[in-house]
Amino acid sequence: MDTQLKVGDTDEDTLVALLTAHLPPGDSTLVGPGDDAAVVATSDGRFVVTTDVLVEGQHFRRQWSSGADVGVRAGVQNLADVAAMGARPTALVVAVTLPGDLPLEFVTGLADGLAQVCRPLGVGVVGGDLSAGPVVTVAVTAHGDLEGRGPVLRSGARAGDAVAHAGVAGWSAAGLALLTADLAGHDRELVAAYLRPSSPLAAGPAAARGSATSMLDVSDGLVRDARRIATASGVCLELDDPADVFADDLARLAPAATRLSTTATTWVLGGGEDHGLLATFPPGPLPDGFRKVGRVVTGSGVTVAGAPPPPSTAGWDHFSR
Amino acid sequence: MDTQLKVGDTDEDTLVALLTAHLPPGDSTLVGPGDDAAVVATSDGRFVVTTDVLVEGQHFRRQWSSGADVGVRAGVQNLADVAAMGARPTALVVAVTLPGDLPLEFVTGLADGLAQVCRPLGVGVVGGDLSAGPVVTVAVTAHGDLEGRGPVLRSGARAGDAVAHAGVAGWSAAGLALLTADLAGHDRELVAAYLRPSSPLAAGPAAARGSATSMLDVSDGLVRDARRIATASGVCLELDDPADVFADDLARLAPAATRLSTTATTWVLGGGEDHGLLATFPPGPLPDGFRKVGRVVTGSGVTVAGAPPPPSTAGWDHFSR
Asked: Rounded CA gap, A273 and A222, in Å?
């Protein structure tokens, strides 16, 4: 198909056919796209479900993000929420709004990005909806299978637990800062971490098998999200000195921080959208992929050794910025 | 809360708390809103899932539709897709974009509208996401439980089956036509059928129990949707003369049609968004709520006795209008 074509040059059925051809059917799909609804298998009489929307101008800009970038990001951020419950992702549906002047290339890229995230995991894209709209919005709803395990909630942390983290910290915020300063060429890997985040999805079910007492997807910043576990569990999360426990991230981010006259610690503690997993575990060995970053004590809130904690408003809020 | 407040005067956490307070927890909900994802029970190792988005300026206008109207419509159109698979609706999630100048009253109305649809059915609103955006968009993903039955697809119609319809036909299109002509006062009930459609949701599982061979939600127009069954099943759907089988709808719509110098038959055959159910059944008695409107024969496409069929483009397409 001619990639110079715009969305407004075609019709809904053509677009749906174009997208469906790019999307993986999934290992748990009993009835895929094309009917009024899909049917998905679940192994234990329960399913996990979460939804997140990406909005052009709020979460991404088309001059920075390709369709594939947006597809990857929409997929990852939703599958990370499924993984953060300790579930194995199985299926997603996607509702998209598209301006009429959007190149079709962006739309096929979007499908390819979702497919890149989903196909290796056996996750099916089992349904969707398309509408015209003034900006691109991508609302993904993702589903998972707990495989007989209990869900890992935010509310289960107990004094004496270890606090542990899987994934990178601060990379996405650093990448966004570089893009914003028109310095993308300074560090393409960090920019890619913002445009196409990579979440340690397998660590979610591993944490559940490893007796995690609480867990969440770090989407709004480490301290802000740690505070959510603290509040839900009625405990205090004492984070160790980032200079020790996030030494690798800090070293990786240092040149960009220097270039932008900020500190890497700000990104590690306050940056959002890396989609790492923050979890608490009873004393003992941690599952693969997790590093110990602190401990749970009685009390409330979050403390950070060796650094003043960011203000409670640090992190992302799409209405109060 | 002061209802003169705008979305931009508050923050995401406050909005989420405001919405969650209005929404029903649901009978099948194991873990509700507030964690990374929800957990929903399913009785038979499968779940049904569908998604649909409503976009301001495309599907509704704020000068016509209150927040509650949009909430009802978003709920009904998604639950109708679940019902059209023969499933009992159990849970939905909703991803919303909101302009900063939107009155908070619209947002609480939206939640109330969803609740009005969901609460009587025991359907939970188990999760959501909010973002700022240039227009209001409401992407709902709905889920259902097949209760051990096979899903009723579009592809199962067989020659010899009866074609049957549940719900009203043409009312929504008539209501939209009245609104567009600034004649809402002419017939408030028809306008309400557009703003807050009512779908015969219980007829979906009833049809499945009654051995329906195919079924879909009539969202894009009776003929257009009948053609989808015909195509998926490789058969022809012969619809009886609307003057006979839709006599009640035609009589109800006649005054509005006269007022607008059109024919009620146009609305009955081509009007979308009534969210009735069109199904096919083996010979025999029909389940409660269904009326016989035609038969399945060998061949392809759709015929309508006593009326020229609308062109194949009749009905809704959000990109080609």
From this structure: 10
Q: Check: CB of residue B80 under 8 Å from CB of residue B275.
A: yes
Q: pLDDT band for A321, please (50, 70, 90 cuts).
A: very low
Q: What is the ipTM of this complex?
A: 0.93
Closest CA to A10 of A106, A115, A137, A86: A106
Quickly tell me which residue has 């909010």 as its tokens. Answer: B130
The answer to whether the Cβ–Cβ distance between B93 and A41 falls below 8 Å is no
pLDDT grade for B20, boundaries at 50, 70 and 90 = confident
Q: How do beta strands B236-239 and B301-304 pair?
A: parallel
Residue B45 dihedral angles phi and psi, to the nearest 5° = 75, 15
Dig out the tokens for B162 from the structure.
Answer: 């009866």
Q: Is B104 on the interface with A (CB under 8 A)?
A: no
Distance CA A205, CA A121 (A): 13
Place of tokens 């009203």: B168
pTM (two decimals): 0.94
Secondary element (H or E) of residue B188: helix B188-195
A188-195 and A171-180 are packed helices; what angle lies between their axes, rounded to 10 degrees?
110
Count of residues making up chain B: 321
How many helices (H) and strands (E) in chain B? 10, 12
What is the rounded CA–CA span in Å between residue B260 and residue B256?
6
For residue B82, list chain A residues with Cβ-Cβ distance below 8 A: 36-37
Given this model, what pLDDT does residue B309 score? 55
Chain A interface includes B318 (CB < 8 A): yes
Q: Which of A35, A92, A140 to mutate to test the interface with B (most CBs of B within 10 A)?
A: A35
Contact B37 A216 (CB under 8 A): no
Nearest by CB: B45 against A41, A51, A134 = A41
Contact yes or no for A129 and B39 at CB 8 A: no
Given a cut of 80, is residue B297 above it in pLDDT? yes
Cβ contacts of B135 on chain A, cutoff 8 Å: 133-134
Please check whether residue A16 touches B, CB under 8 A.
no
Beta-carbon neighbour count of residue B4 at 10 Å?
A: 9
Q: How far apart are CA B59 and CA B316, in angstroms?
A: 11
Given CB atoms, is B277 within the 8 Å cutoff of chain A? Answer: no
